[in-house]
């Protein structure tokens, strides 16, 4: 399916397309993209936990495409319009593989063969997935934009160590059970604007239940693994994080910046901003974040195409 979209008064027409692909496990996964008239680089988006691409990511896709970037997204298994039990991820490694395989296939399409540069863009859990994709294929990507990346589960959202141990044992028996205790409503904590919270709650493709046991374990597993291996991150990156984020810890983004082996790295911490910087903040704050992201991408594009 394809149609034209034009965003934010920019007259760079944006074509929107969506299709289903089948992963290596035979599951149908929903994918979508926003394509400008003449793409200068490719951006591959990995969304957050319980979220999806085509609705909540629409503004992001239009803004970046209007700036000249072709933006491709995919709904993970158990998320959005893709197959699988809603909110259930049995193995995060499979999600990483699905994303990597789709992104590589997109890069190899005839219309994209001559486009030199490829960037990852990950939000929250998607930030963790972007970093894991990078570790899987360290030389394939020209950079990453990490938006409030989940390199550690916030202490406010994490059950006590004793409860975690019990949940891990139970997850082996009833992995899809929705009993993970959390101390706050993630939608309330992530999105500053009440109208955005309402949009998320009314979006049938966003999962609103308690985290399923195995999904919660996988989130904990990959974030803990990333936290221990921040020094292995080597690609150029921009990390942006709200200073008032209570879902993922801005101090961990600072730690990522400090520990990563990347020689080209930038961090932007926004005092007072919440977790969802691309979708849930005030219009002025969202504009500030996108200005910083597009400026960083444009600098990388200019450098990569100089000479």
UniProtKB/TrEMBL annotation:
InterPro entries: AB_hydrolase_1, AB_hydrolase_fold, Hydrolase_4, MAG_DAG_Lipase
Pfam families assigned to the protein according to its UniProt record, in alphabetical order: Hydrolase_4
Domain Serine aminopeptidase S33 per the UniProt entry, residue ranges: 38-278
Gene3D superfamilies, alphabetized: alpha/beta hydrolase
Record-given protein name: Serine aminopeptidase S33 domain-containing protein
Organism: Kalanchoe fedtschenkoi (Lavender scallops)
